[in-house]
Design brief:
- This protein is α/β, with parallel strands linked by helices.
- The chain has one domain (about 5-10, about 15-155): 3-Layer(aba) Sandwich (Trna Endonuclease, Chain: A, domain 1).
- The protein has six helices and six strands.
- The chain has helices at about 5, 20-30, 80-95, 110-120, 125-135, 150-155, and strands at about 40-45, 55-60, 65-70, 100-110, 135-145, 145-150.
- β2 and β3 (about 65-70) form a beta hairpin.
- The longest helix is centred in the middle third of the chain and has 16 residues, at about 80-95.
Length: about 160
């Protein structure tokens, strides 16, 4: 186990947040991922409170630079996290050295329907257009069993009214 990945194990820390727990779980899963595009080679940031980096930034084994914003519905302001996703992603596009990055969001697997239902308050064409503007390469979901991926459009469509 690499020192970078070992450091992602849940260590006691004051003011733990559901987002930080999600990040730690996600990176732990990617430690042994078979896909070189996803397996972590070098962690740049793994702190949901960072002011200078995205919640999760790393270089994969295949040298991709991932820039990932994490959000969780496991909080009293869960409805605000829906709106924060857009602002956080827009902020990341304004940082320098972002031209060759892969942008993504990370949410708990159990929150897919929550975010999908909330996003459906936005006209689908505008939602999809935002995903193309950034561009959002994937939506990661994580739970105790592993990591999955959805497209931006699949996230929108996941809730069936």
């Amino acid at each position: 186990m690499s020192p970078d990945v070992r450091a992602t194990k849940r260590a006691p820390m004051a003011n733990r947040t559901p987002e930080q727990d999600l990040i730690d779980q996600f990176l732990e899963h990617l430690e042994t991922n078979a896909d070189d595009d996803l397996r972590v080679a070098k962690i740049i940031n793994k702190n949901c409170r960072s002011k200078t980096y995205a919640d999760v930034e790393f270089h994969s084994a295949s040298k991709l630079h991932w820039v990932i914003e994490a959000k969780s519905d496991d909080s009293k302001d869960r409805h605000n996290t829906v709106h924060k996703i857009f602002g956080e992603l827009l902020k990341e596009t304004g940082r320098i050295n972002r031209d060759s990055c892969r942008h993504a969001i990370l949410i708990p697997n159990c929150a897919v329907r929550f975010y999908s239902r909330a996003f459906q308050a936005i006209h689908r064409d505008k939602f999809v257009g935002f995903g193309e503007l950034i561009p959002i390469d994937t939506v990661f979901t994580s739970d105790e069993t592993g990591v999955s991926q959805l497209s931006w459009e699949e996230l929108y469509d996941a809730h069936k009214p």
